[in-house]
From TrEMBL:
It comes from Roseibium marinum. The keyword Hydrolase does not apply. GO terms for biological process: glutamine biosynthetic process; polyamine catabolic process. Residues 134-468 form the GS catalytic domain. Gene3D superfamilies: Glutamine synthetase, N-terminal domain (3.10.20.70), Glutamine synthetase/guanido kinase, catalytic domain (3.30.590.10). This is Glutamine synthetase. Residues 1-20, 166-186 are annotated as: Disordered. InterPro entries: Gln_synt_N_sf (IPR036651), Gln_synth/guanido_kin_cat_dom (IPR014746), Gln_synth_cat_dom (IPR008146), Gln_synth_gly_rich_site (IPR027303).
């Protein structure tokens, strides 16, 4: 846009599908769409949308939105961890204060009445960003890069399954029936005809996404039965984390329209591959606009190698963020395409850290460890933290692997307690994430593990009931 641009071609904030600059533009945007209600939402530790629905008039005329502090100390089952020497609840469960980020304003296209959604940030009574709010955690890590004059760029890939409705958790999940009336039984990786089985649903996903200003780069059919993958366009980490957060809501809603469930469980079916959230990462020098991973002649820089080395050293210490639930560790199997190590290599999908072939300016590292069940804010923050620590500490990676590393020694924890043990003792993680976040996160996850251990599985009844 230039000074000579005709007024008729200048987009008003009210024309934007997603995001406005300030409260005045928000009021104009909502009025233009006759929005009656606003979902004021915030992602919790698990990535679940918490918040309040309020009339538009109340949003602008009422006080700042508040919610109890306990929403950031809640397990996925709705329980709360017990106090210990590192974690203590807010004794009075007093209020937190939530401020809207108007750049996230968009519609809720599946609602029958005109409704908007707006992501909020959490603050203490004193006005400080809440250390345990996932969006603030990611901002904290991005500030480390900003202080160095760098700007990370990421592109996430999110896998998920479509399954038949399942109202009884004792029964295994099954693939849904497509337009042919038959469920998938084999592996159909990259199959267009298998993707076409769900044309109507995919059309709804694209339509609902477009109405929210969410940009899908590509959609493919993945290896599993009725397993899909959505690739998002590269961009700012916070904006992309917001998009993943909203995409999950969107895909679930679209699936329900077609009498299906969409699940982002890491391993929903025992005989199918797991679902990942791969994160492609590069870093731009803000002054020059150039990728710091490429030198003047396109060669790899020491910073790029240190970025890789940081992931190799620190990913095992943040695996409880990349694989946040008991189910997550079922995905790490040498019989599947999921990585079981933190080796790196060029265009090698049997290692946890892949360097795709690209031109120098697009040079990036793909972190293949996170599951699709991971909180996108925390997974992106943890991955960037690993790379940052590698750079500032001048770490060097081992030699790249060019062969099949599926059976190589496992360097990732095989269960949640082991992963939490590495996380809570890592001084580097406490320094970059803050003690309060580390203490709260590990308390929540230990409580979730204890809840899981209280449930007797079908395997135990099958093999132990009459044999031991």
């Amino acid at each position: 846009m230039t000074a000579d641009t005709p007024a008729s071609e200048i987009q008003s904030p009210s024309d934007s599908l997603r995001g406005v600059p300030d409260v005045d533009a928000a009021r104009e945007w909502l009025n233009a769409r006759n929005i009656q209600d606003i979902e004021c939402i915030v992602p919790d530790i698990a990535g679940v949308a918490r918040g309040k629905m309020m009339p538009t008039g109340k949003f602008f005329s009422g006080p700042v939105m508040t919610m109890p502090a306990s929403i950031f100390a809640q397990t996925i089952s709705g329980d709360y961890p017990e106090d210990d020497d590192r974690f203590q609840h807010n004794a009075t469960d007093g209020d937190l204060y939530f401020r809207p980020d108007y750049s996230t304003l968009t519609t809720v296209p599946w609602e029958t009445d005109p409704t908007a959604q707006l992501i909020h940030d959490a603050y203490t009574r004193e006005g400080d960003p809440l250390e345990t709010a996932p969006r603030n955690v990611l901002k904290r890590i991005l500030k480390l890069y900003e202080d160095k004059g760098w700007e990370p760029v990421i592109a996430p890939e999110i896998e998920f399954y479509l399954v038949r409705p399942n109202t009884d958790p004792d029964y295994p999940l099954e693939p849904p029936r497509g337009r042919s009336g038959r469920p998938e039984v084999g592996r159909q990786s990259y199959s267009i005809s298998a993707l076409n089985e769900f044309d109507d649903l995919i059309d709804d996903i694209y339509d609902l996404s477009e109405q929210q200003g969410l940009e899908i780069d590509t959609m493919i059919h993945e290896e599993g039965a009725a397993q899909m993958e959505i690739n998002l366009r590269h961009g700012n980490p916070l904006a992309l984390a917001d998009q993943v957060f909203l995409f999950k809501r969107t895909i679930r809603e679209a699936a329900l329209r077609h009498e299906m469930y969409a699940t982002f469980m890491s391993k929903p079916m025992s005989n199918q591959p797991g679902s990942a959230m791969h994160i492609h990462q590069s870093v731009i020098d803000k002054e020059t606009g150039l990728n710091i991973f490429a030198g003047e002649n396109g060669e790899e820089t020491p910073l790029f190698l240190s970025f890789i080395a940081g992931h190799q050293k620190y990913l095992p210490k943040v695996s409880c963020i990349m694989a946040p639930f008991v189910n997550s560790y079922r995905r790490f199997s040498k019989t599947s395409t999921a990585p079981v190590n933190v080796y790196w290599g060029y265009d090698n999908r049997t290692v946890g850290l892949r360097v795709p072939y690209s031109n120098a300016q697009a040079r990036r590292l793909e972190n293949r460890i996170p599951g699709s069940d991971a909180n996108p804010y925390l997974a992106i923050a943890a991955s960037l933290a690993c790379g940052y620590l590698g750079i500032v500490n001048g770490l060097k990676p081992d030699a790249p692997k060019a062969d099949d590393c599926t059976d190589r020694a496992r360097s990732l924890p095989r269960g949640l307690p082991e992963a939490l043990g590495k996380f809570e003792k890592a001084e580097e993680m406490i320094e970059v994430f803050g003690e309060k976040f580390v203490a709260t996160y590990r308390a929540i996850k230990y409580e979730e593990f204890e809840t899981f251990m209280s449930v007797i599985s079908p395997w135990e009844r099958e093999y132990l009931l009459l044999n031991v």
